[in-house]
Write a structure and sequence with these properties.
This protein is α+β, with helices and mostly antiparallel strands. The chain has helices at residues 22-34, 36-47, 49-60, 70-82, 142-157, 181-190, 238-250, 291-313, 344-356, 370-374, 403-418; strands spanning 6-12, 86-89, 95-99, 103-113, 127-129, 132-134, 161-162, 164-171, 194-200, 207-212, 214-223, 227-228, 260-269, 275-276, 279-288, 325-334, 337-338, 361-365, 379-382, 387-389, 397-399, 420-425. It has two domains: 6-212 and 336-425, Aminopeptidase; 214-334, Alpha-Beta Plaits, CATH 3.30.70. Strands 2, 3, 4, 8, 9, 10, 17, 18 and 19 form a nine-stranded mixed sheet that branches. It is elongated. The chain binds zinc ion.
């Protein structure tokens, strides 16, 4: 039997034009927001804030330490499936829900990292006081994950059909030594079709990260024979050498422009107070707005550690009992990159801002967006609404008041760049 034929009309084409004026943006944004299905999706967000908060609490309370994101990924996968997405998990543990567009040769990726910085065993129970929630990871990235789910559910309930396929990804490995491995895998897998990436990370609606801050994580290790504190006195001591080298390193002059920073974030070594240690290590994070400065700072670390070892081996003490070895390993590297000011993605965000009455500040930061940006793929990272603070601390908090503005901004940005197809019967 022949039934009504469904044809797709490209109601709101994906934003492609360069540098639209404010008036054009306003027109594009409000045209999108006037689409009945998009409007229904926006209204869904308004009407489901308490369930969005509940989802955030539930997923935040599933621990997701670095390299142990599996349980949270599974729970997120269930919710994305309920939101009508075709789900799969890739080889690094990313969970990906697909909302197929009319044109599935072009992909827009919406992602939120699911890992936290907190080690296994951290108490992640959420304390709730009205709209205010406190728990490690509640904002970074409980807010982003909750928004990912909310946007998927809003589009599902409003039967929004995009032009370009939208992938909703909960990705692993954003924090610390994860080294962006989840985003690296996603970009590698979809690279040929990937038109834009929108990263939901943390809270707020006031900023958009369009510039990727380059960073490197390094580990300096000094080893020696080790021995007894009394009978082996004079033996070169890796902790002494590391301290000597570290003092040199932290005296390194860095420019304020391009802003360049360093942090010794971890130190370990030694086995007991009355032993000459056989090993000592530091982990160092260096960042810069400029790759060359980053290279210079990495060299400074190597030279400082080498000099620390030299100082420790130097007379006056008898060092004939052994030698020190040193090395500096690269644990991770985040490449830099920048979104062009006339990119369609930025235009889509600006148009969304106009609709929700928001103004975005452009920022440079180190996020999952580094990977696509470094490869010339349009990408931004934005907060997912509400307000948060104390990221990476046990006192981390999130206040959901007004979060709908951030949710709508993200949804409209994604649909602005994916385009919306209208299904019409005839
Ligand atoms: Zn984050």
């Amino acid at each position: 039997m022949k039934r009504a034929l469904v044809c797709a009309i490209l109601l709101a084409m994906p934003v492609r034009s360069a540098a639209p004026s404010q008036a054009q943006r306003l027109a594009a944004g409000s045209r999108l927001a006037e689409n009945a299905r998009v409007r229904a999706a926006l209204e869904w967000l308004d009407h489901n804030l308490s369930s969005i908060n509940d989802t955030q609490v539930r997923l935040t309370e599933i621990p997701a330490p670095p390299f142990q994101e599996g349980a949270r990924a599974a729970a997120l996968g269930e919710v994305l499936t309920e939101a009508g997405l075709d789900l799969h998990t890739d080889k690094v543990g990313n969970v990906i829900g697909e909302l197929r567009g009319v044109n599935d040769n072009e992909i827009v990726l919406l992602s939120a990292h699911i890992d936290t910085v907190f080690p296994a065993g951290t108490n992640v129970k959420v304390h709730r006081d009205g709209d205010r929630m406190t728990a490690p990871g509640i904002s970074d990235n409980g807010t982003g994950i909750a928004a990912l789910v909310a946007i998927a559910r809003a589009m599902d309930s409003a039967h929004v059909k995009p032009v370009r396929t939208i992938l909703f990804a909960g990705n692993v490995g954003e924090e610390g030594e994860g080294n962006l491995r989840g985003m690296r895998e996603l970009v590698e897998t979809y690279r040929s079709k990937l038109k834009a990436v929108v990263v939901l990370d943390g809270s707020g609606t006031d900023h958009v990260t369009t510039k990727a801050l380059a960073s490197r994580r390094l580990e300096a290790t000094i080893t020696g024979p080790g021995g007894h504190s009394w009978s082996d006195f004079g033996m070169p001591n890796p902790i002494n050498a590391l301290i000597r080298g570290s003092v040199r390193f932290i005296n390194t002059k860095v420019p304020s422009g391009p802003r360049t920073t360093f942090n010794i974030g971890e130190i370990e070594g030694g086995t007991s107070v009355n032993s000459v240690p056989y090993e000592a290590k530091i982990k160092v994070d260096i960042r810069s707005e400029n790759e060359e400065e980053l290279g210079r700072l990495e060299s400074a670390l190597r030279e400082s550690i080498a000099a620390g070892v030299r100082d420790e081996m130097a007379p006056p003490r008898d060092r004939s009992k052994g030698n020190l070895e040193w090395k500096v390993d690269l644990l991770g590297s985040r490449p830099g990159g920048e979104l062009s000011n006339d990119s369609p993605l930025l235009a889509a965000l600006r148009a969304a801002d106009e609709v929700v009455g928001n103004q975005s500040r452009l920022e440079r930061s180190s996020t999952d967006a580094n990977i696509p940006l470094s490869l010339g793929i349009d990408a931004i990272s934005i907060g997912a609404g509400g307000m948060g603070g104390g990221a990476h601390s046990l006192q981390e908090w999130y206040d959901a008041t007004g979060r709908e503005a951030g949710l709508k901004r993200a949804l409209l940005t994604v649909l602005g760049i994916s385009g919306v197809a209208e299904e019409k019967t005839r």
